[in-house]
Amino acid sequence: MLLRAQSDALFAEALNHIPGGVNSPVRAFRAVGGAPFFATSAKGAHVIDADGNRLLDYVGTWGPAILGHAHPGIINAVKAAADRGTSFGIPNPGEVTLARRVKEWVPSVGKIRFCNSGTEACMSAIRLARGFTRRDKIIKFDGCYHGHADSLLVKAGSGALTFGNPDSAGVPADFARHTLVLPFNDPDAVAAAFAAHGKEIAALIVEGVPANAGLYLPKPGYYDLLTKLCREHGTVFIFDEVMTGFRLAKGGAQERFGLTPDLSCFGKIIGAGLPVGAFGGRTDIMDHLAPLGPVYQAGTLSGNPLAMAAGQAALDALESTDAYRTLETLGLQLEAGMTDAARLAGVPVTWQRIGSMFCGYFTEGPVWNLADAMRSDRARFAKFFHGMLAEGIYLAPSQFEAGFLSTAHTAEDIDSTVRAAAKVLKSL
Ligand code: KE4
Q1: Is 268 among the catalytic positions?
Q2: What is the rounded end-to-end Cα distance, in angstroms, of the chain?
Q3: Does the CB atom of residue 122 touch ligand 1 within 6 A?
Q4: Rounded to an integer, what distance in angstroms lies between the CA atom of residue 399 and that of residue 388?
Q5: How confident is the model at residue 157 (pLDDT cuts 50, 70, 90)?
Q6: Which residue is catalytic, options 142, 240, 262, 372?
Q7: For ligand 1, is residue 124 a contact (CB within 6 Å)?
Q8: Distance between Cα 60 and ligand 1 center (Å)
């Protein structure tokens, strides 16, 4: 068992100062029970908590740590930038070089605007699409998460083609009624939505791969259909690569699937763990942004020099190493090992993966959409989560989150993970 006294004391005090003791809900362990541990440092594939436990980390701060924690190139770049000042509120060279680098890696990006989170990126891309098309309606898909902007915290309406209802307190019903939430991987549903509302739809937004309800993949041809329907109806196709960007390939999921979105959203890796979001795409759309055009968007810390230096260092490291081949090899090894461990333990676990992103659903598979994912045995997953944590392995603290590998993970790390999983699964 892990030592817990320091983390428990910190959590007890945090509860007095911060709602739920956390600054983002998933960190509170509400989906798996128990109390969160507090991280004090991280290096490579490991996190050290307040009680000195060294944990093998498969969350990677929810995606940014693709090179592992405290990567020397990133740390040195941030330190050097910090010595020159932490923020200017004035254009700085780092914005230009990172923008140029993103355009080189992601050909669909003609222009890009940096902001401070994935939420801001998606919220701003939606506003831009609405301003560009002069339409109000948007389409999103159930199980997909694009940050916590009001028009995206919406759940499916009662009928297949009825507009959405708020998915959070504080979101006015009027806001939700402009959002149509459709089942993912259902070609008929999206075709019917465009047939009924096509000329009203400003934007369709979808994740590079849905990885906020675990991890499921688009069926062959599905994203091509979404692209085709958007083109036919003058709807802006927004591809949310906050999680998949620079992870599934240098050019993200759009490179892997051969897509050319109108706009793409980025975050996480592009800031290497510092607060960065970005959105970019067709120049004729992007030039509608202030100060050029009528769509307002702004941010005091957008293009922050430390964050730009971190992002540049991360992309430099990804470019100079065999990162994507390493991540694919590790992903395959983990998938094979975990699938075998579950089979030998007689526990139904469907291990789904693309590149270095994965999810082990505690249900028979395949999982193609949210309804399939919801069949998972959350209680059994919670026991598995805590059993693995007791073995020193930190998985995402929810059945409905994805896990992440980094180039700092090793084949030995994977082997020890699979051995621990075999032991824990047998105890379930
Ligand atoms: P942020 O505002 O959290 O930087 O990004 C929002 C966002 C947008 N789009 C996608 C595809 C995302 O996955 C996210 C955020 N991902 C979650 C992980 N499920 C962040 C973790 C958290 O909320 O604490």
Answers
A1: yes
A2: 17
A3: yes
A4: 14
A5: confident
A6: 240
A7: no
A8: 13
Length of the chain: 428
Q: Is 116 in the pocket of ligand 1 (CB under 6 A)?
A: no
Decide if 361 is catalytic. no
Q: Is 267 in the pocket of ligand 1 (CB under 6 A)?
A: yes
Q: 1 pLDDT exceeds 80?
A: no
Testing ligand 1's pocket by substitution, the residue of 146, 207, 264 carrying the most ligand atoms inside 8 A of its CB is: 146
- From the DSSP assignment, how many helices (H) and strands (E) are in the chain? 14, 16
Closest by Cα among 270, 335, 332 to 303: 270
196 CA from centroid of ligand 1 (Å): 31
Could you give the CA distance from residue 85 to residue 186 in angstroms, rounded to a whole number?
A: 50
Reduce the DSSP state of residue 237 to 3 states and report it.
Answer: strand
**What does the block give as tokens for 235?**
């709807």
155 phi-psi bin (left φ>0, alpha ψ -120 to 50, beta other):
beta
Smallest Cα–Cα separation from 92: which of 72, 114, 111, 124? Answer: 114
How far is residue 226 from each of residues 41, 203, 232, 237, 261, measured CA to CA in Å? Answer: 42, 11, 10, 8, 10
| Closest residue CA from atom 13 of ligand 1 | 243
Q: Can you say how many angstroms the Cα of residue 273 is from the centroid of all Cα atoms in its chain?
A: 13
Tokens of 45: 């594939």
> What's the CA-to-centroid distance between 243 and ligand 1, angstroms?
7
Q: Which domains does the chain have, with CATH numbers?
A: 5-70+322-427 (3.90.1150.10), 72-319 (3.40.640.10)
The pTM of the full predicted model, rounded to 2 decimals, is: 0.98
Q: Is 284 exposed, middle or buried (0-12, 13-18, 19+ CB in 10 A)?
A: exposed
Residue closest by Cα to atom 20 of ligand 1: 62
Residue 345 has pLDDT above 90, yes or no: yes
145 given a catalytic annotation: yes
Would you say residue 165 has pLDDT above 80? yes
